[in-house]
Write the structure tokens for this entry.
Amino acid sequence: GRLIVRSNGVATDAAILSGGKAIVSSGGVIKGTAVGVGGHVTVQAGGEIDLAAGATLGLVLASGAREVISGVRATGAVAGKGVALVVSQGGIAANARVLSGGSIVFAGGTASGLTVASGGLEIVASGITARGLTAAKGATLIVSRGGTAASATIGAGGTIAFAGGAATNLKVAS
């Protein structure tokens, strides 16, 4: 079957199972979504998906889309060019990848096994303390106003930018 969520539409607690397809258009939101193996979700520019559980296999995000992980562990998320991966309260992005032009926003959640490519962004949201982040060669860590990067490591060729935020126990490699 197919699930289509258009502008101003909201679908909640959807399970996209093997052979199932979902399309989220600009302005549409799909919340509490579980994507099973063999399920396929396409989020177009301006659309948003809030994952409930499971792997992100079969998830295609267009530039300008947002993927939100809140209260669950999601494995294998990929933020490509123009895509924002938002890790909210209680969310865990396991083995996530941020490609050049993509970003991961720490808004109360954490990441394990995170890989950020050259040209990728890590952003600590306002009012949030994110611990143990690493900005490797070509990657940039941005600390928003009121945010704190605790015990962060800036590798050779990496960058940290303060947009009103702070850092504690910062390690900068040569």
About this structure: The mean pLDDT is 90. The radius of gyration is 16 Å. The chain has no helices and 26 strands.
